[in-house]
Amino acid sequence: MGSPLRFDGRVVLVTGAGAGLGRAYALAFAERGALVVVNDLGGDFKGVGKGSLAADKVVEEIRRRGGKAVASYGMVFERTILLIFLQLIILRDRSFARISDEDWDIIHRVHLRGSFQVTRAAWDHMKKQKYGRIIMTSSASGIYGNFGQANYSAAKLGLLGLANSLAIEGRKSNIHCNTIAPNAGSRMTQTVMPEDLVEALKPEYVAPLVLWLCHESCEENGGLFEVGAGWIGKLRWERTLGAIVRQKNHPMTPEAVKANWKKICDFENASKPQSIQESTGSIIEVLSKIDSEGVSANHTSHATSTATSGFAGAIGQKLPPFSYAYTELEAIMYALGVGASIKDPKDLKFVYEGSSDFSCLPTFGVIIGQKSLMGGGLAEIPGLSINFAKVLHGEQYLELYKPLPRAGKLKCEAVVADVLDKGSGVVIIMDVYSYSEKELICHNQFSLFLVGSGGFGGKRTSDKVKVAVAIPNRPPDAVLTDTTSLNQAALYRLSGDWNPLHIDPNFASLAGFDKPILHGLCTFGFSARRILQQFADNDVSRFKAIKARFAKPVYPGQTLQTEMWKEGNRIHFQTKVQETGDIVISNAYVDLAPTSDTSAKTPSEGGKLQSTLVFEEIGRRLKDVGSEVVKKVNAVFEWHITKGGNIGAKWTIDLKSGSGKVYQGPAKGAADTTIILSDEDFMEVVLGKLDPQKAFFSGRLKARGNIMLSQKLQMILKDYAKL
Hints:
- 33% of the residues lie in helices and 24% in strands.
- It has 723 residues and is an alpha/beta fold.
- The strands form three sheets. Strands 9-11-12-13-10-15-18-17-16-14 form a ten-stranded antiparallel sheet, sandwiched between helices. An eight-stranded mixed sheet has the order 3-2-1-4-5-6-7-8, sandwiched between helices. A five-stranded mixed sheet has the order 21-20-19-22-23.
- The longest helix has 29 residues, at 101-129.
């Protein structure tokens, strides 16, 4: 059972607390340490009269039992109140034909407007204190309707709508709002229930639910509960899958409605929408179907056999091939988007194109592959009806077969590897393979979850899925933190994910979030960068693969805490939001290549480069004139020759000592000038087809150190070497 639920230090306002349910709540809260404000106007169940006796008697009873309570005889509000139970009691039963304006207005004024006013008075105080619990009292009459209670039923269902909206608005401030529909004896029910039934439905059988929903440890929010006689049940909405009864460019007719009425009302395989986003999402899906397919009047979205064959037919379908071209600019933009910074000198290789070992972060590979999703290609696949408002990114796998080129153009091929039926939704497994010419560079696997599309009878598992792996059951070997910027999502989206969910507050609100959320793949990139730094010394050639499961959203400005466990060459990790403790990436890992493997697999490519012959020839020519050149140049030049975007060879021309020398490899001391350019551009410069200055300003040639010394290279390449 655990420790008893206590409310010490909490202030609880209970309206209608002079008798019945309200009295039971007041006594129960006081017994568990709360200071109770016993509010009761003292009137009868018709709202007639007023007085202090009812509230005073309950206060006296609480104090006699050793509790703390104060009486309130009107709409008095204390700013310290943290919990409210709204039990406003008045009844004016009339058949609809006999309801007067006064009967209608007083019921709504007391039940609906009264609840609104009390809650509004408390709202700002709850927001400032980042805590609040509100219970609205609806009724079975409001949920189901009841003869003679049209006024009361309308007001009570109105309370449910009010509570649901407050639950959404209050969520970010730790304010929870729930609704109960109690069956219990009270001043109202004395006139409509037999005395023995009133006795059996004791208010004391309702109070425990109220106390639990009001406790700080209860996370329930936006719930609706029926309760009475020791029984509690939670209610939810259910909706038929319905039928589409119009065709594109054709009028919708009542005859079409009649023809599909049985399907419209068929609750088999019904959906259970839990938010306005899920409700409106289905309408968007209908519009998409009508506009793109021209559906027939007899088409229904719940035809299981059609859905099964449709999804099955999507497996193996290929999207049109596409290319992704990028330069150092896109690689740097991505690195900044996932937290790389000049504050850490080791990050310079990812954010400065002039760095001698400039590299793409390995997870930039997801940017290359995601174009298949951003372009809407999934919607074109036969058998897949995609409502992108319902698509969630569930898991991500990325495997690199060699480091990403620092710049290049990759050809990508995407295929639907499998489709899984998870009951509450469908998982689409999308594989994307990226090639440089014919060489495979990387493989992405996107696991996309389509909310509400499951239940078609498909398989639940697949051997094509890259499986997530649980973290070890021990403390982590390393923990690193990153505080994201409030502009993090705005920066990351420049890498190609333009979803307004991450930038537009209104769109985020429609999706059920308090504000725009950070891209899951941005958090993914933060964590991978930390693992590369911690366990591979930022050596991108050691990064082989990464798998992650997205668990919860992150808001820009929150602090990411990456926890890491090393087991051989696999680094398990999970990522948390430090402020809340929520796990946002779970069951994740990075596979690294051993240091010995990377050195064995990446031999010098100098022998394959045209520039090798040039450097060797420069070395031979300098043997005759080296001393003279050293006197005029007096500098050490280090060359980084790239091939396919990666460094293929390093050469040093030492014109600072002796008669000068040329050798393959980095400078043995500090180089005065480091020059980076591709093998092809080097040959263009040597042959006089590319002006070095123009190459520098166009970004094709990069230099660091004393770049003015590079002008003296003219003597080496022309006057002396006579190449």
